[in-house]
Every structure is written in C-alpha cells, then in structure tokens.
Amino acid sequence: MGIIVAITGATGAIYGVRLLEFLKRLTIESHLVVSQWAMETLRLETAYSFAELQTLVTHVYNNNELGAAIASGSFKTAGMVIAPCSMKTLAAVSCGFSTNLILRAADVTVKEGRKLILVTRETPLSSIHLENMLRLSRLGVVMMPPMPAFYNKPASIDDLVDQHAGRILDRLGIEHNFIQRWQ
Fold first, then answer.
1. Using CA atoms, how far apart are residues 53 and 162, in angstroms rounded to an integer?
2. For 78-91, how does the pLDDT look when each residue is reduced to its tens digit (9 = 90+)?
3. Which of 33, 81, 105, 151 is the most exposed, having the fewest neighbouring CB atoms within 10 Å of its CB?
C-alpha cells in the first residue's frame, strides 16, 4: 500500500520533496497532491519544478479532483503526510471542511483510522492553532513540526531536512537508513 503525500503553501516545501525522494529510493508507491500555493512555494524555495516533482512519484492528482481514488475510503493506503501543512489546511482538516482533494484525502485518512502526519509550519502558534492540533491529536493524528536534531551535528540544511524526513518515515513504520540515529 502506498503513501499519500500532500504539499501545501506553507514554507518548507523541501520537507515534502525530500520525503518523496526517500519514498522513491525505497520503491514505495506514492500519491502526490499539491496545492496552488505549494506550487508557488516550491518555485520560491527550491530548485525543483513541478515537472521534476512528478518524476519522484507513482501517481499525481489535481487538487480539484475530488473524484480521485484517494478521496475514497475504499482506496487502501498506509497513510498520509501533509508536508508542509499550512495552518489553513490544519484548520480545515480539524473541522472536516473537505473542499479540495488534500482535505478530502486527509478526512478519509482520519475516518478510516489510518496514519495521518501533519508537518505543521507556523511560529509563533496561536491558541487557535494549538486547539486545532489538540483536536486532531486526540483523533490520533500526529503533529510533526520540523524540529531540528543537533545530536547528529548537522553540517547543512540538507542534513536537517533529511533528519526530519527520516523521522516521518519512522513514524510511518518504514524501515530505512537515511538518518543518523542517537548513539
């Protein structure tokens, strides 16, 4: 079973990209949905084009394609990661407001009891953000804002991004050797 990866317009598009690179290296089926603002963030923050991103995945869906396979609970997946996850997306998932494919796929992931990981990107966090996170956490959704680890003595931003993407794989239960572990 594959993993759904959604990229929203929050800063940190590289987290979603790196996760897709790792999934490809592990030959794990991946289903990608990218929001309109994520396209802009991808262009502003990375050297990747959307065309290059598409070469990393098994399936690509348009965010307006509410009839896509991943919008149905009968379509089996091993889980979904939204990386990065904007506060707008967090709020919509928290309220079950499924107006696009990213939100519908997240809603389905929650209702089917599958793993949903949100790589939330915002600082400082308001009480509204925290309440939305708490509501979803109580449903089993995992909040994984990028928190850099320094025990591995990162030498670059890539090292920090790799560490977080590797921890996402860990949380999904996917075996890999992409990161340095605590010794």
1. 17
2. 999 999 999 999 99
3. 151
